[in-house]
Here is the input.
Amino acid sequence: MNIYSATSLPTKTTSSTPTYTEVLTAAPFAHHVCMEDNYNGAGRLLPTQMADVQSIEGCASACSGYDYFGIEYYRQCFCGNAYDMTQPGVAGCFFPCDGAYEFCGGSNAMDIYYNTLSVTSPPAPASTV
Here is the structure.
């Protein structure tokens, strides 16, 4: 039996500000770069859009048969075996995932991951904006 005095009751503390992290690996994928998507109307970096996901790991799972996956705008998941490397790299991949304390791209900013089992040296973006 636990007996507490009125001055020493246990309290629960919570943080009101969550901490988000950049996920660098989602096996067998590794983070490559943040790139601007649809730069000057050029179209999507990766051609196949999957169902919305809640995390980096969810997109990695959905794109398991591809060489690359990308995530942007909180939940949008894209897959492909190549990406348009003529679009510039950006520093705008800071939107939180809908279902995890991770970063999931940004507004027209896609976090690109590559499959380490099939891609040994992913191409670099043409430039950075």
Q: What stands out?
A: The chain has one helix and six strands.
